[in-house]
Request: fold
Amino acid sequence: MASKYAFTPALREVRFHLCSSGAGSDATRNFLKRAYPIMKRSNPQTPIMIREATGIEPKVWARYEDGQRLTQAHRINRQRD
Reply:
């Protein structure tokens, strides 16, 4: 059975950057508490790094075998239209 957190074989590294205590990183911290064990178990050879610092905006970085790096800032819109 395939895991929903199984990475592509071309993925070489994943890094999560987040604030260790800021409210803006709450969703990322909660996601990692829930999903990190599953991601690591599904992808034991892929480094999954978590970097915490004070006052930064949460981001996830992905590095692929061809050297390409992609990033995505996590933004949560709490306003409803």
Q: What stands out?
A: Residues 75-81 have pLDDT under 50 and may be disordered.
